[in-house]
Amino acid sequence: MHFAYPPRKSSNPPPFRPRSTRLPLLRRSRLKTVGLGLFAFLCILYLLFGRSKPSPYHERVPSGTPSVVLVTVIDPTNWNNAYLSTIKENREKYAARHGYEVMVVKAYDYDTHGAPQSWAKILAMRHALSTYPDCKFIWYLDQDAYIMDPTKSLEDVVLEPKKLESLMIKDFPVVPPDSIIKTFSHLRGQDTDFIVSQDKEGLVHKSVIVRNGEWAKFFVETWFDPLYRSYNFQKAERHALEHIVQWHPTILSKLALVPQRTFSSYSRPELGDTYQEGDFVVMFAACTESGERSCETESSKYWSKWRAAFGLT
Questions:
Q1: Cα–Cα distance measured from residue 261 to residue 226, given in angstroms and rounded to the nearest whole number
Q2: Which of 33, 122, 192, 212 is the most exposed place for a label (fewest CB within 10 A)?
Q3: How far apart are CA 287 and CA 79, in angstroms?
Q4: Domain interval for residue 253
Q5: At what angle do helices 214-223 and 236-247 cross, to 10 degrees?
Q6: End-to-end CA distance of the chain
Q7: Kind and range of the H or E element at 36?
Q8: What angle do CA 200, 225, 138 make, to 5 degrees?
Q9: Which Pfam family, any one, appears in the UniProt record (predicted)?
Q10: Phi, psi of 210 (to 5 degrees)
């Protein structure tokens, strides 16, 4: 019996049908989604735990030692040295009594970059801020003034917040008589950084108080800006101060205007409020280098009085 041979396979089998690409594409899509999700999760973990959060900015608060630095610029090249010696003694005796620091510096030690040497007062204030970074206040008092009452601390006179607030002149023209810019009506004593008074013509820039801090640095740099030094204001740094106070809200918003006799009484009545017995400071406004109105002549009326008050006679 013969059995048939199985049919021979073709040597040219039909080609395989291509596999569907749907499944690999789906896998790739899922892998991509999983990968992105994992990456996002890792990013969140890094943001939460992988780095330290930057602390918010906090302005450095001075320790308050010393509480006050009393600054005076003297000009030995143009003014009588005997007179300037009495100014230096006056400052040193007062500061020693109340535990303040004192800086009596020479005008020619500062480069005013071609501006009048009177601008040195601003550089001296900046110098004091850098020399005493922990002081609480800078009091600049010019060389044409005596402190007359040593029993009064600056805190008692004007710095204590409630005292300052009771003295503040609010909603009043910054520069007399008719400036359209007025002092803030809602400002509190504790929020002020700059204390100044007025005479009949404008701000008394020769006796000012500045609270130490970042604002103080901004203030002195703004006041000493080259633009104002080169502007040829009629009264140099005084008019520059009046300009920045009126047109820079950042400065006006920190300004406390107080009565002139608080710490800037004048020896003569022509320009402002006149010194009266018991006033804290007397200033020899518009005194000259020599002659009848010289600072030495004007100050001689008060020399024995302040020395007696200080117990030096």
A1: 32
A2: 33
A3: 11
A4: 68-309
A5: 120
A6: 159
A7: helix 22-45
A8: 65
A9: Glyco_transf_34
A10: -125, 130
CB contact at 8 A, 261 and 254: no
Q: Which tokens sit at 190? A: 């504790």
Amino acid at site 133: P
* CA distance linking residue 24 with residue 203, whole number of Å: 83
Helix 120-131 to helix 214-223 angle (10° resolution) is: 160
Side-chain half-sphere CA neighbours of 175 within 13 A: 17
d(CA 116, CA 120): 8
Residue 33, pLDDT score: 73
pLDDT class of 284 with cuts at 50, 70, 90:
very high
Tokens standing for residue 292: 């009848």
Starting from the edge strand earliest in sequence, which strands make up the sheet with 145-147, in order? 145-147, 281-283, 265-266
Beta strand pairing call for 68-74 and 101-106: parallel
pLDDT tens figures, 171-190: 999 998 888 999 999 999 99
Comparing CA positions, the residue from 204, 206, 240, 207 lying closest to residue 225 is 240
Whether the per-residue pLDDT at 124 is higher than 70: the answer is yes
Number of domains in the chain: 1
CA 261/CA 120 separation, integer angstroms: 25
pLDDT in tens, 25-60: 556 666 667 667 777 777 776 777 665 555 555 677
Between vectors from CA 277 to CA 272 and to CA 279, what angle results, nearest 5°? 60
Helix or strand holding residue 166 (H, E): helix 161-167
Q: Structure tokens of 306? A: 């302040």
Residue 306 · residue 90 · CB < 8 Å:
yes
Q: Which CATH number do you get for residue 171?
A: 3.90.550.10
CB-based contacts of 157, cutoff 8 Å, min separation 6: 163, 262, 263, 280
20: in domain: no
